[in-house]
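Protein Record: Sequence and Backbone Structure Tokens
======================================================

Structure line: whole-number tokens from a learned vocabulary of local backbone shapes, matched to residues.

Purpose: to set a sequence beside its fold so the mapping can be learned.

___
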Amino acid sequence: MAVVKATATLTDINGNPLSGKTIKFYYSDDGETWNLLGTAVTDENGRAGIVDWIEHTTYYKAVFEGDDIYEPSEATAEFRFGLVIFSLVNLTPTSINVKIGSEFTVSVTIRNDGSESGTCKVQLIDHEGTVQDEKSDTIAPGEEKTFTLTGTAPTYVTEVTYVVKWVPA
């Protein structure tokens, strides 16, 4: 599942933003049958947006129905879901017990379950939110890549949680 923000910008014929105008947002699975997703009012820059959760390719239409001054207008867009979908296959080890200040490594295997190649960035983030190591590589559809990340334990005795994060680069 992915979060999409459909955004429309409404301007007059000279390109000046129109604020305070209602935009209706529609979605469609086939680009033909439209369902109302919701409405939003344009801001001072003429922009309005709405958030949607999708699981497949989805079409969007933004409609301004017009008013006493301006004629109606609409625009459509397509969001292609599933082009690149990175999944965690393996994280080894899942628990580490090391001396204070010592280096350690973790191995992270990521698979691309999507339909197109994409570059994946894998990060090891410490308890203070600092990225201790990161690697990136392109992963083809159906392919798995293993990344080895190195971290350093704190210089004091404590129990610490590290986060491994993978994102499109």
In short: The two ends are 19 Å apart (CA to CA).
